[in-house]
Amino acid sequence: MTEILASPAVDGGDALRPVTGPRRLFIKTYGCQMNVYDSERMADVLRPLGYETTDTAEGADFVILNTCHIRERAAEKVYSELGKLREMKQDRAAAGRGAMTIAVAGCVAQAEGEEIMRRQPAVDLVVGPQAYHQLPELLTRTARARGERIGADFAPNAKFDAMTSERIGPRGVTGPTAFLTVQEGCDKFCTFCVVPYTRGAEWSRPVADILTEARALAERGVREITLLGQNVNAYNGAGADGAPSTLARLAHALAEIPGLDRLRYTTSHPNDMSADLIAAHGELDVLMPYLHLPVQSGSDRILRLMNRKHGPKTYLDVIDRIRAVRPDIAISGDFIVGFPGETDRDFEDTLTLVRQVNYASAFSFMYSPRPGTPAAAMAAQVPDAVARERLHALQALLFEQQTAFNAAQAGKTLPVLFERKGRNPGQAIGRSPYLQSVHVDNGEHLLGQIVAVQIESGQQNSLAGRIIQQKAA
Question: Which of 184, 332, 337, 463 has a C-alpha 20 to 30 A away from that of 362?
């Protein structure tokens, strides 16, 4: 097996040689929670080959850029980072310290694999979102300086079949929270989005596989799991009887796992908020009162241009129905301003919807075209200056709502799951049921535990409180 663990004989690197100590792995993650999950699993699949994670690219034997294609100029940011890595790789080889292997993974890899290899020869491997389980094989081929260096075929079932249920994470330990991918891909084909082209069609993992992984996480001390999917509430994985399940039924099954106290899911589509999923928010204590439900626009006309297949009335109806079963639920959303053809009236419709929903938090972006998507070729592209002005107006309203929601928590007692140390000595930071960041003094000893906290104040981005229950729940 020393062949697999050898340094690649490329770019002036060492010849094949056995590894006498741990290899250092650095993964830089861009974008969404699913990429965070994927990075964790890449670290897991490489660990049996002797790779231990490090926090810096300097001195790393293997560097992976796990990319996202959603944000503006995503590919150019990757190429800029690759330029820096190329210099590190050359310096390392010149100093006789062996070869650095560089891989580009994720959605930019899927969309621009051949172009990446052409523009930046320092890249050794390109691995799409469904192929990272092939990393050991691809490393071997690179070490032998022959064979394909691009693995980007869509086969999500193969990826998950190759993964063990054991989860360690990029730093060798698992904290009290974890992501768990249950669904991948998208069949919605929003005109602004590249996900259907980079992640493939919708596909859901079997219930049994998810439960096995979730139990392993709970046994390692994880108390909160966030279920991930491009359209997570479209989940329809096979149940024990072979019939398709729903996300609601999966949530009920996960709620039976000892030690698992909190459950979340993201990202959802309004058209997939089924009646049983809405009901589950009133039935399951473990299902946290927080829902991220992107709408993108409040204009019916713009939503049609986006191919969202829902209008503002449908969206507002979903909000009303879920608030009926869980009145305290915190609603989060996504917005795009400056979409091609958006008028002042369309933008006012968005502001009207925001006022009607009253968001606890939200993400808002200025539209930027993605090559190959229908929206990129649409007429009436909105000038950047106009889009930027609208974005500032929208964010001002959203920030006002978020600050008010947080301020309203003052005086309440909330169960907080503490995740990490704060900046100040003894300080601890955790999350409320509504996903707010909560910081307290003298709480460092409570990491990984859920305790009652008296909220003293709420700011735009966090809550401050004091512990009133020293014994963990």
Answer: 184
